[in-house]
Design brief:
Largest sheet: none
Low-confidence stretches: 50-58
Number of strands: 0
Number of helices: 4
Oligomer: single chain
Mean pLDDT: 82
Shape: globular
Length: 58
């Protein structure tokens, strides 16, 4: 089987942006953008999304 590459935050963000641009696309309709976001979160739970929460608490 081929090499596995984990989903990163930057890639998930690009997928989400593409789904937002065309909400009728296969990516948006299938929910792939949401699955990509969840995978990126699993692969990097301390990603930059948590930085926003830290700034709000300051």
């Amino acid at each position: 089987m081929g090499r596995e590459t984990p989903m990163g935050r930057e890639t998930a963000d690009r997928i989400g942006a593409a789904a937002e641009q065309d909400p009728h696309s296969a990516t948006a309709v299938s929910g792939f953008d949401e699955r990509a976001d969840a995978a990126a979160e699993r692969n990097d739970p301390d990603g930059y999304d948590d930085l926003d929460d830290d700034l709000d608490d300051a």
